[in-house]
């Protein structure tokens, strides 16, 4: 099936933005680059910003929201987020011209898509991942989460493609000489970010449940490398005998380059 095309405009602590394209819709999940940079990265994909139908936010942290106000108001794009996330924005004095939509935590329709937000544990006022359904195909994104439990696995299971956080190598984080202990505890804690091994364990479960394509995202610049993230997942998948050469695709999203599912 190829009803949902996924592109990562960039991912990491300096900005996150994912483009989802279907036959009749184009949406962004998060808008963490400046409006100008978002336009530039969309251009690389041949997308005009006026083609974007909606922006769906995961949470209020700057690396997910930096450009949303300017981008959404300039191109008159509606913003969708949980009420707690929206309230946080209102406190910051949002532009009046923005169209804000409260998504609560139930499934809802947007154009020809079914959007299914699911709550995850993170140190923001609220944080959710998204599953998106289009013509029998499912896509899911889960970044910025302290842990993955069975409820989250259940929400994501059955997706053809999953974008999932592989934030840090636990050893590199522990040994990082520049991070204070309190920051290390925050990142590794249950409201922080997912380690490579936690990500690999989740991917292994999801692969057993049928997911074929994985994009590792939100890698830490200081406490991870592309190779470490990918090899941790591949090694873990190999323990269940998964064919990581032929059966599955595992790509790694980076901060600076645009990644498209078709270019794996
Ligand atoms: Zn965050
Ligand atoms: Zn983040």
TL;DR?
This protein is of the alpha/beta class and 264 residues long.
Task: Describe what you observe in this structure.
The chain is an alpha/beta fold and 264 residues long. It has a single domain, classed as Metallo-beta-lactamase, Chain A (4-Layer Sandwich). The chain has nine helices and 14 strands. The strands form two sheets. It has a seven-stranded mixed sheet. A seven-stranded mixed sheet has the order 7-8-9-10-11-12-13. Helix 1 links the parallel strand 3 and strand 4. The radius of gyration is 17 Å and the shape is globular. The relative contact order is 0.15. It binds zinc ion (2 copies). One zinc ion (ZN) binds next to loops. One zinc ion (ZN) binds next to helix 2.
Cα Rg:
17 Å
Major beta sheet, strand line-up: 6-5-4-3-2-1-14
Find the structural class using helix and strand composition: alpha/beta
Q: What's the story with the biggest beta sheet?
A: 7 strands, mixed
Helicity range: 25-40%
CATH superfamily: Ribonuclease Z/Hydroxyacylglutathione hydrolase-like
Strand content: 15-25%
Overall tally of structural domains:
1
According to CATH, the fold-level topology is Metallo-beta-lactamase, Chain A
Distance N terminus to C terminus?
16 Å
List SSEs in N-to-C order: EEEHEHHEHEEEEEHEHHHEHEE
Question: Overall 3D geometry?
Answer: globular
**Distinct compounds present:** zinc ion
The mean pLDDT is 95
Using DSSP, what is the number of strands?
Answer: 14
């Amino acid at each position: 099936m190829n009803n949902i095309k996924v592109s990562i405009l960039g991912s990491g602590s300096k900005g996150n933005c994912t483009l989802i394209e279907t036959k009749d819709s184009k949406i962004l999940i998060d808008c963490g680059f400046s409006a100008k940079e978002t336009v530039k990265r969309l251009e690389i994909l041949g997308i005009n910003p006026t083609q974007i139908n909606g922006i769906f936010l995961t949470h209020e942290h700057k690396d997910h929201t930096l450009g949303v106000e300017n981008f959404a108001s300039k191109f008159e794009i509606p913003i969708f987020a949980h009420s707690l996330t929206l309230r946080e924005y209102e406190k910051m004095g949002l532009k009046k011209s923005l169209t804000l939509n409260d998504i609560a935590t139930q499934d809802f329709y947007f154009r020809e898509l079914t959007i299914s937000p699911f709550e995850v544990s993170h140190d923001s006022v609220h944080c959710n991942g998204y599953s998106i359904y289009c013509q029998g195909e499912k896509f899911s994104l889960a970044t910025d989460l302290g842990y993955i439990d069975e409820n989250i696995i259940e929400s994501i299971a059955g997706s053809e493609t999953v974008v999932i956080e592989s934030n840090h190598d636990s050893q590199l984080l522990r040994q990082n000489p520049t991070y204070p202990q309190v920051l290390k505890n925050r990142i590794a804690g249950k409201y922080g970010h997912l380690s490579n091994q936690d990500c690999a364990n989740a991917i292994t479960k999801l692969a057993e449940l049928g997911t074929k394509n994985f994009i590792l995202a939100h890698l830490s610049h200081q406490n991870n490398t592309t190779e470490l993230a990918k090899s941790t997942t591949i090694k873990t998948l190999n323990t269940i005998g998964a064919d990581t050469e032929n059966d599955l695709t595992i790509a790694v999203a980076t901060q600076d380059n645009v990644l498209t599912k078709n270019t794996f």
